[in-house]
Task: inverse folding
């Protein structure tokens, strides 16, 4: 059980975030939930790359081979996505802003019809 | 679809996804395993290319093509936001007001802005050596400039960061990543191949193309975030609905 508890935590985070998106009454809240769903992938990736007793995969002050290091590949994946995720969140918030201006609401359940 | 039906549908879907997820997790290598075949290979490859920070090596050398994709998403998102938040026909622009600031706050900004800029450049420039790189340093650089808004007002910030210049800088740095990739192709190798001399391990000039790609991404992230924040701040401070424009009708909730 202990061997895969961190992965279950990531799955739990994803489902909680999806529940939040499904029941959301405010698009800003929806975007926040999407950010949580995205973060669950970081937990999953970093959990998969963890090595017991491992240190950061940076050899500027530790000699190569002197200590075990955690998996750098998953760290690189998470790293790029943090910044990219932030800009995508900004794009979605810009959409929300325009919705508020054009339709007068940010409640996704009140947005029923398409309007030019 | 009613809210109740939606929750019910979600519960069923979540149970299915959750079931398969737990089953899949049970077959994964256990948490904290000593066996990381990709990690071990990445470390060996990074050391062979004399890059001390293996994460940077993965991002800008071993999987540089992947980073080109990530960087394009970033560029696209900034472009989309700029497009969505441009002043519409029924909106007018006004200049932001000048604001009074406490002298201590002003001192804080004057001292910290250059310091934060130097830290940002340091993090970008040392990406191949120590934790950091273009993505992180770029965000620090963009944040540093906005200290001008905290320590002075929006008019000063607009002088510190000419929005149009950063629009262009964002495009140029995004393009330079691709150009460096093509340079690898021209030099007789593959797209984004590390064709530069690799330098000395753990020195500022090491890792070949890694520091240059780091700088390109650093500038792109910095100018991208600056453009994003500029558009949101413009919306809050400078864009107003015109007086004669029809107001959006309120929906009953």
Result:
């Amino acid at each position: 059980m202990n061997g895969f508890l961190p992965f279950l935590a990531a799955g739990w985070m994803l489902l909680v975030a999806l529940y939040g998106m499904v029941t959301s009454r405010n698009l800003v809240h929806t975007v926040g939930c999407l950010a949580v769903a995205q973060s669950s992938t970081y937990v999953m990736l970093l959990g998969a790359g963890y090595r017991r007793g491992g240190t950061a995969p940076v050899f500027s002050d530790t000699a190569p081979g002197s200590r075990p290091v955690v998996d750098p590949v998953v760290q690189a994946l998470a790293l790029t996505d943090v910044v990219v995720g932030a800009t995508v969140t900004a794009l979605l918030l810009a959409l929300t802003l325009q919705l508020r201006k054009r339709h007068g609401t940010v409640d996704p359940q009140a947005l029923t019809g398409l309007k030019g | 679809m009613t809210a109740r039906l939606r929750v019910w549908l979600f519960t069923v879907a979540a149970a299915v996804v959750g079931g398969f997820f737990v089953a899949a997790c049970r077959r994964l290598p256990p948490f904290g395993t000593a066996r990381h075949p990709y990690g071990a290979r990445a470390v060996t490859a990074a050391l062979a290319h004399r890059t001390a920070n293996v994460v940077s090596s993965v991002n800008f050398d071993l999987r540089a093509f992947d980073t080109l994709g990530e960087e394009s998403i970033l560029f696209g998102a900034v472009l989309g936001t700029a497009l969505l938040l441009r002043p519409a026909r029924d909106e007018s622009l006004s200049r932001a007001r000048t604001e009074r600031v406490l002298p201590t706050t002003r001192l804080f900004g004057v001292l910290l802005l250059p310091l934060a800029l130097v830290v940002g450049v340091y993090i970008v420039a040392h990406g191949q050596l120590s934790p950091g790189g273009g993505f992180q340093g770029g965000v620090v650089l963009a944040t540093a400039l906005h200290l001008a808004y905290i320590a002075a007002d929006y008019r000063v910030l607009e002088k510190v960061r000419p929005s149009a210049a950063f629009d262009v800088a964002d495009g140029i740095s995004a393009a330079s990543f691709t150009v460096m990739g093509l340079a690898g192709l021209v030099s007789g190798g593959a797209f984004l191949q590390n064709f530069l001399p690799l330098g000395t391990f753990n020195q500022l000039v090491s890792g070949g193309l890694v520091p240059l790609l780091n700088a390109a991404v650093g500038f792109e992230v910095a100018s991208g975030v600056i453009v994003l924040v500029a558009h949101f701040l413009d919306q809050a401070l400078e864009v107003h609905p015109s007086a004669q424009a029809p107001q959006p009708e309120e929906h009953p909730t």
Notes: Chain A has three helices and no strands. The mean pLDDT of chain A is 90. The radius of gyration of chain A is 19 Å. Residues 72-103 of chain A form the longest helix (32 residues).
